[in-house]
Amino acid sequence: MVSVPSVKLNSGKSIPVIGLGVWETAQDVAGTIVSKALDVGYRHVDSAACYYNEQEVCEGIASWLKKNPSAKREEIFYTTKIWDPEHGYEKTKKAIEESLEKAKSIDYIDLILVHSPQSDDERRHGTWIALQEAVDSGKVKSIGVSNYGVKHLKELLAYPDLKYRPTINQIELHPWLARPDLVEFCQKERIEIEAYSPLAHGQRVNDPKLDYFAKKYNKTNAQILIAWSLARGFIVLPKTATESRLLPNLQSIDVKLDDEDVKTLNSWDEHLVTGWDPLDYPLDSEKKA
Question: What pLDDT, in 10s, does the model give residues 38-74?
Fold first, then answer.
């Protein structure tokens, strides 16, 4: 079984540096793939309300813990997210309650993220207040954001009632989408970066330029891409619902890229967005301009 190290968040909680993403993982297979992932060494699973598999993912974790009584709930890190239509204080409070109900089999949620900034200034603020209250309740351990640009983070960090800083910003990252300015800002503010779609949705996984590195390190192209995120200091979320890919993705932890190779991969940046890109979503002041 592969052992994955963790990093400490600004909340004081620790998060494994490789997690299993379950976007588009069907409800009828989510629990099984999560259990299989835990078997091979994953201790971090990333879901969201709009993935419609929160309950199945949590039940997969609970089932695995029951089958492995020596393992502890505290060893597993579970993330979910608040979808944009649920922004605003009251709506977010209800959404948190619904996510906690779906997670009752594992007792609490390790991390809740604001899924994107796509609402408005007032509702984003209300959402953060509700998330802070959830942390105070003890049922949510850490809070953060996803798909936030620098301007959205600056807005959040300037809230007059800010009690808990965002622990994480989860964004699409890979060598063709390096986002250097945003990465630098997050690192300066002690906000950990989580890289989703580290394989660029498969669009460049067969790029011949990757073959050189795969041969040099005797690894697959996918493992090189995951290793790049790790070398950059990111937490990385390779998504798969295919059991045979679980272990190889996790074994990327053993790939130690040379500094020069990391620089070469960095140089491929062309701002290739392969999913969605709400990082430039306008603030209210920009909408009125």
Answer: 999 999 999 999 999 999 999 999 999 999 999 999 9
Structural domain harbouring 215: 6-288
Q: pLDDT by residue (tens digit) across 151-167?
A: 999 999 999 999 999 99
CATH, residue 12: 3.20.20.100
Decide if 248 is inside a domain: yes
Residue-wise DSSP of the chain:
-----EEE-TTS-EEESB-EE-TT--HHHHHHHHHHHHHHT--EEE--GGGT-HHHHHHHHHHHHHH-TTS-GGG-EEEEEE-GGG-SHHHHHHHHHHHHHHTGGGSSEEEEEE--S-S-HHHHHHHHHHHHHHHHHTSEEEEEEES--HHHHHHHHT-TT--S---EEEEE-BTTB--HHHHHHHHHTT-EEEEE-TTGGGTSTT-HHHHHHHHHHT--HHHHHHHHHHHTT-EEE-B---HHHHHHHHGGGG----HHHHHHHHTT-----SS--GGGPPPHHHHH-
The model's pLDDT over 246-260, given as tens digits with 9 standing for 90+, comes to: 999 999 999 999 999
Q: Is residue 274, in this structure, part of any structural domain at all?
A: yes
124-158 pLDDT, tens digit each: 999 999 999 999 999 999 999 999 999 999 999 99
- Residue 115 labeled ligand binder: yes
Residue 165 lies in a domain: yes
The count of domains in the chain is 1
Residue 1 covered by a domain: no
Residue in 42, 51, 78, 148 annotated catalytic: 51
51 is catalytic: yes
